[in-house]
What does this fold into?
Amino acid sequence: MNNIIVFCETDNGKLCDVSLELMTKARSLAQTLNCDLEALLIGYNVENLKDELYLYGAKTVHLADDKQLEFFRTLPYASIAISLFKQEQPQIALFGATCIGRDLAPRISSALHSGLTADCTSLEIGDHQDTKGNKWDNLLYQIRPAFGGNIIATIVNPEHRPQMATVREGVMKKEPLSVPVAGSVKKIDVASILTDADFAVEIIERHIEEKKIDIKGAQIIVAGGYGVGSKEGFALVNELAKVLGAEVGASRAAVDAGFVEHERQIGQTGVTVRPKLFISVGISGQIQHTAGMDQSSMIISINNDPNAPIHQIADYSIIGDLNEVLPKMIASYKKHSK
Amino acid sequence: MTKKLKIVVLAKQVPDTRNVGKNAMTPEGTVNRAALPAIFNPEDMNALEQALYIKDQNPGSEVLLLTMGPFRAADIIREGLFRGADGGVLLTDRKFAGADTLATSYALSQAIKKINPDIILAGRQAIDGDTAQVGPQVAEKLDLPQVTYAEEIQEISDNKVVIKRRLERGVEVVSCTLPCLVTVHATAAPCRPRHAKQVMKYKYARTVTEDTAEGANYLLSLADYPYLKITEWGTADVGGEDSSYGMAGSPTKVKKVENIVFQAKEAKKLTASEEDIDSLISELLANHTIG
It folds into this structure.
């Protein structure tokens, strides 16, 4: 009772990254709150995923496994989650801000009259006092940008449970435990919950492609140029991108030199990106390249040439050797991030 | 087979957050909301096109816009009338103020119950909040099935609609029983432009509030030309519990709002020293740029 439940999404029989990222975050929230972490897993033939969920700290895996649940449909999934939440009374419920999570979570929040905050970029635990002097301990701070990214709002749901939030993929870090917890599966009696009305929507056909490189949608991009020097040199760029949850981009010179695949090329003959943060590594900053990235909200340039044009459009320019700067950034991030 | 359908389009008037230019910023670097133009939420425009398309296919159908907002939100109902809608309802009441998505959904669902449509269309999300919550929440309150991220309404018959949905990595075609609620994705067809005939006809469409405002002087009276009247409803018209409206009906509370301060584009020069990099990373973490 009053635990944290993470709705775990699957894709082709595998757990989605966003769900494991949420499990990781929820595990630390559960520790702060001194409660258990539980997973809700809905699908068909997905019971084998329980072990991976134990590895991410799930004490209980609530499992709804049925042929009719093979592909996501709002109503049956919502009915199962609503029924479970009524019974288990979780204090927090988290969902990936995916096509599925953003369809399902609001439906559940409406049925339970519990507040929901979309696309949180940070989740913390803290106290709250309203203007009338009422106080609450240990609420979930749901922190998100709003108003086209021009403000950051902290939202709380003092009086209604569960406190619900969605988070996009790549925002939280994914970190398994070294030893799985001793968890167990609790099977949900699907037949007793679902009714004919839950099947108002029928899937006629589906065309889903394999996951491709998507630098366009990335919030953070670390891009390397010819200055990175080699394919091997890109390992540092990749590592920084990985710890920041960023995508890797490149200038045309780096692509032509064969350092990275063409899909990552940014600029006039590549893709145009406008991430929240663009870290430019060893890129001189020719106009053909900057045309594809100069609308980024924030630009950090790293280049040992103080006269490189990239520094002129940067918010922060670091004049230095990338082989020295990148490891320091990685170490500093690991030290400061929670 | 064609059918006379009653179609409701949910629309929202939003500040144009996509064009936060230099003049939209205060000297302190925060957003000057008053300087942002109020526009018809873009994806609601895609929803309107789908509604008008259904009407084209099913002559005699009726497209009604429903919006909640202040008096000036009547502007987007007029915009919809100019493009082919048949009427509109403005939900406006002080009691609606401070509503989060759930309280908004409650108000909209109360109004929809009164209209009793065959299908409800809405944009996937509004650009001022990007939550995508109101559509599914309205569907739940009305106990209707929902189909989100519609790209194309392929077929609509007596009791069924076939819809192509746009997902992260592909498409899905589904059928759904009517009545239902559909949210429309930005990749759907853009809305047709204003039609000169409609503009002529509805130029003076107005709410009673606008009609009776000080200094208002309309040639054609609402009594003689009833189609010019944009309906205004408040809580008294749509019924429901006062405690479910506005701030009182909103489980989420805003604890804190921080403005993102935009700095002039003058690069801060940093060295490769550990201190410089450490302070940069700490700053980026503190303002949620990373982490």
